[in-house]
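Progress report, Aim 2. The chain analyzed during this reporting quarter is listed below.
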Amino acid sequence: MRLRSLILLGMLAYAVALVFTFPAVHLLRWVDPAPAKLFGVEGTVWRGGAQQVEVNGIAVEQVRWRFQPASLARGELAVALDGRYAGGPLSGRVALDWRRAVHLREVDYRLDARRLVDFMPLPIAEFSGEISTRVDRLTLQGGTLGEVTGKLRWPGATLTSPLETVLGDYRVDLDTTERGYRAVLEGSGGSLGANGEVRVQGDGRYDAQITFRPARDAPSELVQQLGFVTRRQGNGSYLLRRSGSLREFW
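Predicted structure tokens for the chain:
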């Protein structure tokens, strides 16, 4: 190898090392990470963390990142992330490709169901159990949501207030369709079985159709409350049908 090539290779290696060992807090003075806001930044671009990262009002705490050098071979810049959201552990990978599309992959999140009350507009019910969520893939391009696949599992979903009963083992599978997205719900093994789906179009309009089946020993109060928000069918099940826009919720 010629001397010039060795010098150029050495300069390139030095530049790469300088970038990824550069203190992350100094880099943020030059690079605007909007829409994300980072607080309490420490470490380097290669390996570091922040006390809190906020994106569109969603705050993730105790964030740690690790650069994934193998992603460069795929034309991406990717980091592995760990943190906590609403008290639950969160981990996964975030990548930015040459088209400036953002990819979330293999994102795992666990939430104590008792924290569901924090997301309700009114504290009308309380729950227990652990909800596990897995986002296999989520793509954002220019602020527009692209492909999404994932699943949610809530084994032994339990209602603790205003009455106490085991609802069952619940699961939701999310995938992408030609016109938007589809979430399929199934629940069994407790006092309230369920099955149905929610379809969401690209413009945010949704259509939900879910059938609930109270068990024979389901608490009468649960069945009574179910009748207030659903329509009883001839076979003893209860049908929930809703349509509208997701914009109504934020």
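The helical segments are 3-20, 24-27, 220-229. The chain has a mean pLDDT of 85. These observations will guide the mutagenesis work planned for the next reporting period.
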